[in-house]
Specification:
Shape: globular
Helix content: 25-40%
Number of helices: 8
Largest sheet: 5 strands, mixed
Structural class: alpha/beta
Distance between the termini: 27 Å
Oligomer: single chain
Order of helices and strands: HEEHHEEEEHEHEHEEEHH
């Protein structure tokens, strides 16, 4: 229950909620894993995290993997990534080596010993102010959109919040009825609004697919610093519904009808083959994908 359209009574998320009215609400959408690292592997590759050969499920994204960014870059899209990567912090695993033209963000979770900002392959700030992180990452996302407004582009924005430890900027402290966690969510909603407004300002909103989701369920063991699974069993770390069933919204004029919802089961593994279908991008012949093309679901049809 961490967003308004899902029934939250403790904070407001008007910009996220607007996506649910302008596109499709998924009622049975799932991440590929109840933890952030392997879940992100699934998003990037369309493959089950267990397929990776790196130590532990999805602990790094090996260069041999073919990512969404590489798929779209090969089809003349400009590709950008802003936020938390967490798929390997050594040079060979960073976003620029995985198909992204642009990267600004942190290489791993914000609770690790040294949270740093990368621009491209280089550390530019060893001590970023985490209370300003959501705003800083939003600014970088807006700059990428503006610089690439004349190009086809793919932008992956992965905010570190609300991963513990959580921070909000001064403008949002005390604005919710749910303490700091609610303030963090409301600032994330502000970020969504800024991105939507920038797309509108650049006359791109009607020709851009926008997806909102989460990499896993709420971290319930963090108590007031974690979220709510809304009655679903358990949360992050568990493969029960509360750990893997995630809020998911999609908007794209001309493909997705306005204000509809689906109970069809979908997975974040499905975005890779679906993006390939929508953009007419060619998937390598020998690539094993676990996701499915859900273009028909997006149109409002049964799978």
């Amino acid at each position: 229950l961490d967003v308004g359209y899902q029934g939250s009574k403790f904070y407001e998320t008007p910009n996220i909620d607007s996506l649910s009215k302008r596109g499709m609400k998924f009622r049975s959408a799932y991440s590929s894993h109840p933890r952030c690292v392997p879940s992100r592997y699934g998003i990037m590759t369309g493959r089950y995290p267990a397929r990776t050969k790196s130590p532990g499920p999805g602990s790094q994204l090996n260069e041999s993997e073919y990512t969404i960014a590489e798929l779209l870059k090969d089809n003349n899209y400009r590709t950008g990534m802003v936020g938390k990567w967490h798929l390997g912090h050594k040079h060979e695993y960073l976003p620029l080596q995985q198909g992204f033209d642009f990267f600004f963000g942190i290489p791993y979770s914000n609770d690790m010993a040294s949270t740093v900002y990368f621009r491209g392959n280089n550390v530019i700030d060893h001590f970023p102010d985490q209370s300003l992180m959501t705003k800083k990452l939003t600014d970088e996302a807006l700059k990428f959109i503006e610089l690439n407004s004349k190009n086809q582009f793919y932008l992956y924005v992965a905010h570190p919040m609300p991963h513990v430890p959580i921070y909000a900027s001064e403008d949002f402290i005390g604005t919710s009825k749910r303490g700091l966690y609610g303030d963090v969510i409301q600032e994330l909603d502000w970020s969504v609004g800024k991105i939507l407004n920038k797309l509108d300002e650049m006359k791109l909103l009607e020709n851009t697919m926008v997806i909102f989701s989460s990499d896993n369920g709420p971290w319930l063991t963090m108590k007031e610093m974690g979220g709510s699974s809304g009655g679903l069993r358990n949360g992050k770390m568990y493969t029960f519904e509360g750990g893997m069933r995630v809020p998911t919204l999609a908007m794209y004029k001309g493909l997705i009808p306005v204000g509809i919802e689906t109970n069809e089961i979908a997975s974040q593994l499905d975005w890779f083959p679906t993006f390939a279908s929508i953009t007419n991008s060619e998937i390598p012949e020998n690539m094993i994908l676990d996701g499915l093309d859900i273009r028909e679901i997006l149109k409002g049809n049964s799978f």
